[in-house]
Amino acid sequence: MPHDTIVVLDYGSQTAQLIARRVRESGVYSELLPWSVSAERIKAINPKGIILSGGPNSVYEPGAPTLPGFVLELGVPILGICYGMQAITHALGGRVAASQAREYGPATLHTNASVSLWAGLPADLNVWMSHGDRIEAAPQGFVTLAHTSNSPIAAMGDLKRQIYGIQFHPEVTHTPRGTDFLANFAINICRCNPDWTPEIFVEESIARIREQVGEGRVLLGLSGGVDSSVVAALMHRAIGDRLISVFIDHGMLRKGEAQQVIDTFQQSMGLNLVAVNAVETFLDALDGVTDPEQKRRIIGELFVRTFEKEARRISSELGDIAFLAQGTIYPDVIESAAADRPDAHRIKSHHNVAGLPDDMQFDLVEPLRYLFKDEVRRVGEALGLPEAIVWRQPFPGPGLAVRCLGEITWERLERLRDADAIFTGELRDAEMLRGETSQAFAVLLPVQSVGVMGDHRTYAETVALRAVVTDDFMTADWAQLPPELLARVSARIVNEVEGVNRVVYDITTKPPATIEWE
Ligand code: XMP
Whole-structure pTM over 0.90, yes or no? Predict the structure, then answer.
């Protein structure tokens, strides 16, 4: 069942994805497409409204992106944000000029018209501005709907044609009522039905998966991370035992994690799960290796080989497997130019499960292709997955190998697992594992130092605690954890974990440091 859809055209803004996310938060389905998309593609979607994002250009620059003519001809409401507003102004004969002062940061928007765009919002709205150019003269037929101290025309509208422009960014969290504003546009003005809910998504995905797969079998690499877990639960509802999930325990998982994946998916949910214990193989391959890049390479390659071996074994037992399910999500699709290529669906599997041999080709099933990460979590909740899985913090593919600095031995991995469990357990008890920290973990350093315990001198290893706060994991701040909590964690680690006599807290931002230590 097609949903009422708002198309967001991307003019190159860093926050274009956020616009689609915020519109979806109001319950209206939204897709993000490049501004140069073909008229046919848009017409096939049959959107009920179009939003033009911001962008880095100036409309008078040669080659600057423009407002495609067919967008106006669709006859649906249009909202231009920042550059989008300028593109509308330029296309319809208004005047855009470089502002004397670049406006960046918080501003108060004074609304001066009673229109449904402002419904339920205060007359003075706290908004976030980020623009150089501004509107000097609105095109004919437009009225001013708001101003700021620096922008006389901070919002404008042609109420007859339902074309609007705003200078501020409703999509960023610094515009606190931004989602309500976008909901006004999508629901009041475009008349979209807010029917985009996780429950409906689950229902429709199940129908789509059944249609694609028919009576076929599907293989899935289940890591226990959020995306592959949600794919597993969804596919299982759709095709039951014809989903064969392969979970490879490489020994570098956190305390109790492998068992949790097996318990959740095999025992509670009854998935057809093949759990492979490959711990010894991985430890043998890593014997004596200390170089971070070499660790990553060895684990990556061995992982693919192990998956391949299982896939061949399962195929020889059950017959050919035609499909491979993957937890690709919308940001991956948007960022991958290849997504638009007609051959994008039957790609060589090694583009996705890196390194599978050419004779192993699968059709891909990617049920989360149109979901943002927070939507994946909500779908996971709707499917009844446990909170510990749905709200899991990110975990690197090579696992604890890149947190166990120096040589990797089973003994050192266990030491790290115990320290990590104490740290994350205390954070969980203090309700700081969700929201307060974006990622928190322990690192085991191959650094021995002298300590004293009772009457004894000790000479043992060091644990570093790392906890960061970040929105996008590209930059991060260290988390300012309460000293009492750090004290408790430190005391527990040196008392309870054999072989550790010192605990330090990492207070480095990213950049210059990375989040992981290797
Ligand atoms: P860094 O250490 O580069 O990490 O600041 C940024 C984020 O990426 C995660 N990370 C990985 N995730 N495979 C993954 O799936 C990897 O090899 C990998 N390395 C780092 C890291 O945990 C953090 O969230």
Answer: no
Residues 309 and 347 in one domain: yes
Q: Does 59 reside within a domain?
A: yes
Residues framing ligand 1 (Cβ under 6 A) = 394, 396-398, 439, 473, 510, 514-516
Same domain, 158 and 235: no
d(CA 165, CA 315): 56
Residues 297 and 272 in one domain: yes
Nearest residue to 156 (alpha-carbon basis) of 207, 119, 115, 126 = 115
Rounded CA separation 382/271 (Å): 18
330 and 436 in contact (C-beta within 8 Å)?
no
Write out the residue range of the structural domain in which residue 487 sits.
403-505
Q: What distance in Å separates the CA atoms of residue 109 and residue 121, rounded to the nearest whole number?
A: 11
Q: What is the DSSP letter of 139?
A: P
Structure tokens at 361: 């080709």
Does 396 fall in a domain? no
- What separation in Å is there between the alpha carbon of 282 and the centre of ligand 1? 20
Assess if residue 514 is contained within a domain. no
Domain count of the fold of the chain: 3
Residue of 296, 466, 515 with the most ligand 1 atoms within 8 Å of its CB, for mutation: 515
Q: Where are the alpha helices (DSSP H) in 5-82?
A: 16-25, 39-45, 69-73
Q: Examine the domain organization and report whether 353 and 461 are in the same domain.
A: no
- Segment 353-390, tens digit of pLDDT: 456 778 888 999 999 999 999 999 999 999 999 998 99
- Whether residues 168 and 215 share a domain: the answer is no
* 3-class state of residue 385 by DSSP: coil
Sheet holding 155-158, edge to edge: 29-34, 5-10, 49-52, 78-81, 163-166, 155-158, 143-147, 95-111, 124-137
Q: Do 177 and 66 sit in the same domain of this protein?
A: yes
- The residues that bridge with 96 in the sheet, in sequence order, are 135
**pLDDT, tens digit (0-9, with 9 covering 90-100), for 40-88:** 999 999 999 999 999 999 999 999 999 999 999 999 999 999 999 999 9
